[in-house]
Amino acid sequence: MKQNVILGIDTSNYTTSVAIITVDGSLVANLKRPLAVKPGERGLRQSDALFAHTVNLPELMGEVRRFLKDYHVCAVGVSVTPRNQVGSYMPCFLAGISAAESISAAMCIPIYKFSHQCGHIMAAIYSSGVNEFLEQEFAAFHISGGTTELVRVTPAEIGFSAELLGGSADLNAGQVIDRIGVYLGMQFPAGPAMEREALKNTKKIPKKRISQNGMQINLSGLENMAIKLFSDTGDKALVAAFVFDYIGRSVSAMIDAYQQIYGKTKFVCAGGVMCNGIIKGMLSEKYDVCFAEPSMSSDNAVGIAALALSAYQTENKND
C-alpha cells in the first residue's frame, strides 16, 4: 500500500514552490523555481509574476510526479494570501490556488488554505524542530523582500492567527537590500551577492542611528545612506556590510521593544532575509532565536505542506 503524503503549493512574487511531506512528517521533496527578472530590474509586476507561475507550475508538477510513484496524495495545502489580514491580496497567488483547487477536485481530497506568511513561520518551526510553538503563543519575524513584520502568533485549529505588532513603516528589508545590490551592479535578487561582498569587508562599519518608534522601524533612509557611503568610498564591501549591520541593529531594536512589554521570549525568524549569516550572527549573540534552514528561509512550500499536514491530522485524529 502506498504511503499517504501532503502536497503543498506556494506561488509568491519571487518563486514557484511545491513540496511533499509524508503523514508522519518526513520531507519527501522541496522543489522551487525562481521567477526570472531581467538584468537591472528590481522585481516583477504582478501580471508578469502570475504569468511566470502558469509556466513554472506544470513543469514543477512534472518533477513532482517522479516523487509520487510510491506515495498517494491525501490532501493539498496552498498559500492564498500574503498574510493573515483582512484585504491581504496579491494576484500571483491565484496560480497556486487554481492548481490546488484543480488537484483537490480531481482527486476528491481536502484542500487547506493558508497565508504565505504563516507558511514561512511554519517552515522555520518545521526545519528548526521547535515544535513546542505549535501549542503556545510566540513571537515571530517575517522579513523578506515583500515583508518586514513582527507578529505575535497564536496557534489556531487550522494554521495560525498572527497579530501584527511591528515592522517597517516604509521599505522592507529585502527590498532595500535588492535596491542597493542592483545599484551596485548585482543581479536581482541581490541578497546572496550582497552577503558575499559584505564578508570581504575589513573596514570599520559606520554606526548610523536607526529610525525606531517602539516596535516600528523605518528603512527608507538606509537606501540613501548606503548610496552616499558608496559615493564617498566606492567600496562595495563596506556598503554591503553597512546595510546588513543597520538591518540587524534595527531588528534588535524591535526585539528589545517587544521584550520590554512581553518579557524575554524565544523568537522564530522566518523569511529570505533571515537566512543571512551576518544578521543571524548578530541576533544569536544577544537573543534566544531560532531560524529556518537556508532552503526553508527563502520562499518555499514546505511550511504550507506542514500546516496542511497539521490540519489533516486534526480532522482525522479519531479515525
What order do the SSEs take from the amino end to the carboxyl end, as H and E? EEEHEHEHEEEHHEEHHEHEHH
The coarse overall form would be: globular
Largest sheet: 7 strands, mixed
Lateral arrangement of strands in the main beta sheet: 9-10-8-7-6-11-12
Total count of strands: 12
Written description of the protein model:
This protein is α/β, with parallel strands linked by helices and 319 residues long. The protein contains ten helices and twelve strands. It has helices at residues 46-67, 93-107, 116-128, 173-183, 191-198, 220-233, 236-262, 277-286, 294-297, 302-315, and strands at residues 3-11, 15-22, 27-34, 71-81, 111-115, 138-143, 148-155, 160-168, 211-213, 216-218, 267-270, 289-291. The strands form two sheets. A seven-stranded mixed β-sheet has the order 9-10-8-7-6-11-12, sandwiched between helices. Helix 2 links the parallel strand 4 and strand 5. Helix 3 crosses helix 10 (302-315) and helix 7 packs parallel to helix 8. The longest helix has 27 residues, at 236-262.
